[in-house]
Amino acid sequence: MDAADKQSPQFDGALVDRVFWPRLFANDSTTAVMLDSVLAAIEVKSSLNKSEMRDIFSKSAALRRMLALHRRPLVTAFAYECANPNLSFFDFSISFLRSPDHSPSLVCVLNQSVFGLARFDTGELLPVDEPSPDAIPVLFTTRRDTLLMYLYFLSRWATSGTRIADLFMSYTKNLFSDMTSFHFDTDFLGAVATDGAALALARTCFERKRKVDIGQLYTEARNKIGLH
User: Fold this and answer.
1) Would you say the C-alpha torsion 66, 11, 140, 172 has a positive or negative sign?
2) Phi, psi of 44, deg, nearest 5
3) Which 3 state secondary structure label does DSSP give 171?
4) What CA–CA distance (Å, rounded) separates 105 from 34?
5) Model pLDDT for residues 10-64, shown as the tens digit of each residue
6) Residue 171's CB: how many other CB atoms inside 10 A?
7) Taking residues 100-125, what's their average pLDDT?
8) pLDDT category, 194, cuts 50, 70, 90?
9) Coil, strand or helix at 52
10) Distances, alpha carbon 8 to alpha carbons 16, 114, 158, 199, in Å
C-alpha cells in the first residue's frame, strides 16, 4: 500500500524492512505492508515463457509506478524452469527497453541463468540494481551456481545503505569479472523495439534453439534484419 492508499498487485514474496516500518495487516496468506518498507518484491513462476515474462513486467510496472516517499521497491522473479532461456532473454531485453524505469531488476532461472542489469565501468561489466535507461540487460550464465547467485543479489539488496554494502561492492567486481555474460548491442535493440516486423523476424532466430549458443543466434538475427 502506498501513501495514496493504492494497492499493488499481489506478489509471492517480498523483502520487507520490519525494523522501522510496521506491518499494516495480515489475513490468512495475504500480508499488507507500507510500500516504502519493501526492499524488493518477488514473483515466482513454475516455468518462464513469453506470457509469464509479460506478467512479471506488468506487475513490476504497476508496483514501481506507485507513490513512494522514501524509495521505490526493486522487483525480481524466480522461475524453476525455462524451455528456451535464449528466447526468454530476448523477450526480457525488449521489454526492458520499452519501459526501463519500471522493469524488474532480476529474473532467475534455476540451474540455468540470471537475467539482470549492468553497466560498463572502466571496460568491465558490473551488475546494477536500480533499473534505468542507462542500464544494459545482461544474461549471466550461472548454471549450478544460479541459486547461490540469486541469494547473493538478495543479500546485497538487503544490506543497501549499510556499511556492509561497500564490502558487497568490492566482492561484486571480483565475482563478475570472470563470469560468462552476454548482452545485445544498442543498435540491434533499438531496431527491433521500434519496428514490429523486425522484432518478429529477429525473434524467429531464437525460437526452438535453446541449446544453440546465443551469440550465434544473435549474429543470425542481426543479419536477418539487415544489421552487419
Assistant:
1) positive
2) -115, 135
3) helix
4) 20
5) 999 999 987 777 788 888 778 888 999 899 999 999 999 999 999 999 999 999 9
6) 12
7) 91
8) confident
9) helix
10) 15, 25, 21, 31
DSSP string, 134-188: T-EEEEEE-GGGHHHHHHHHHHHHHTTTSTHHHHHHHHHHHHHHTS-EE---HHH
Q: Cβ(158)–Cβ(138) under 8 Å?
A: no
Rounded Cα gap, residues 109 and 93, in angstroms: 15
10 Å CB burial of residue 22 (0-12, 13-18, 19+) is exposed
pTM here?
Answer: 0.90
The DSSP output letter for 12 is: S
- Phi, psi for residue 186 in degrees, rounded to 5: -65, -30
CA-only gyration radius of the chain, Å: 18
What contacts 62, CB < 8 A, 6 or more positions away?
Answer: 8, 9
3-state DSSP helix/strand/coil % of the chain, to nearest 5: 40, 25, 35
Q: β-strand 136-141 against 181-182: which pairing, if any?
A: antiparallel
Q: Provide the grid cell at 152.
A: 547473493
Give the strand pairing for 113-121 and 106-109. Answer: antiparallel
Smallest Cα–Cα separation from 189: which of 177, 202, 176? 202
Could you give phi then psi for residue 194, rounded to 5 degrees?
-105, 0
Q: Which residue has the cell 528456451?
A: 84
CA dist list (Å): 60 to 79, 213, 221: 16, 29, 28
